[in-house]
Predict the structure.
Amino acid sequence: MPFFWKPYTSDVTNFIATLKEKKPALEAEQRAGRALLWDRQLDRREQAEWRDAKVAQQPYVYQTK
């Protein structure tokens, strides 16, 4: 391996690195956004009620009784 060899970094990796340099609070904003939409506490009782209230689908959906 020559002494002037540099490890390859893609354009996307370079873009993300420069973006993080420009906006240091970016990761905190991403974590806050994720917590807003995805990181939620689940209520097991409500999930069980939801599962029990589900009505089974007919074998042929478009046929009326």
Remarks:
- The two ends are 76 Å apart (CA to CA).
- Helices lie at 11-22, 26-37, 44-53.
